[in-house]
């Protein structure tokens, strides 16, 4: 069970990151001093210092004695840190990340699908199929249910690839993937077509056809890119 101290620390980080990403504290702004922030968030100075150390390490702020803590430009931020990436995707700062994320997915997921077709265990195949059936059950009536199942489908394929680097990358961008699916699933003109394309990926993996799995995933991601461009 998560300790109370850890919950406080995570809530503090989530809040600070959201305030920076949303522009409440814009680039080059100097944050309030330690005492003011501790009072504002009702946390100890120790907790606040630990949070600032994390933000420093992720390139979001720079703290200097007497000069205070300054928000750094976005290009310095570590967008592969899940909390930062998730916040960026949920705020206006993340809009430009959607096409970039789809480009990254186009590089990673077709190969992951091909490897899954070669390497997936029976349990991993079952996880991919269960996620697909979750999408079928959602029938696009609930964006949240559909998007969660969609996320499960893609992450199950990455897991089934057997490639530990793919898995690490998939974990890092999990929050961004969910935000991306929530957007594209809202704007797609045909959920039936999206479901059909997912089934093509599933079938190719299940039948152990790597080349077909790769192409099916390319087609699926290209559909998301086209929907985003049209929107």
List the keywords.
231 residues; mainly alpha; Arc Repressor Mutant, subunit A; Four Helix Bundle (Hemerythrin (Met), subunit A); 2 domains; two-stranded antiparallel ribbon; 72% helix; 3% strand; elongated
Short description:
With 231 residues, the protein is mainly alpha-helical.
- Work out the number of β strands: 2
The description of the largest β-sheet is:
2 strands, antiparallel
Structural class: mainly alpha
CATH superfamily of the largest domain: GntR ligand-binding domain-like
> Which strands sit side by side, in order, in the main sheet?
1-2
Distance between the termini: 43 Å
The helix/strand series, from N terminus to C terminus, equals HHHEEHHHHHHHH
Number of domains: 2
CATH class of the largest domain: Mainly Alpha
What fraction of the residues are assigned to beta strands by DSSP? under 5%
Low-confidence stretches: none
Supply the CATH architecture of the largest domain. Answer: Up-down Bundle
Total helices: the number is 11
Shape: elongated
Fold topology:
Layout: H1 4-21, H2 34-41, H3 45-57, E1 61-64, E2 68-71, H4 82-90, H5 97-119, H6 122-138, H7 143-160, H8 164-172, H9 174-187, H10 191-206, H11 210-230
Antiparallel strand pairs: 1-2
Explain what you see.
With 231 residues, this protein is mainly α. It has two domains: 4-76, Arc Repressor Mutant, subunit A (Orthogonal Bundle); 97-230, GntR ligand-binding domain-like (Four Helix Bundle (Hemerythrin (Met), subunit A)). 72% of the residues lie in helices and 3% in strands. The chain contains eleven helices and two strands. The protein has helices spanning 4-21, 34-41, 45-57, 82-90, 97-119, 122-138, 143-160, 164-172, 174-187, 191-206, 210-230; strands at residues 61-64, 68-71. Strands 1-2 form a two-stranded antiparallel ribbon. Helix 1 packs across helix 3 (45-57) and helix 6 packs antiparallel against helix 7.
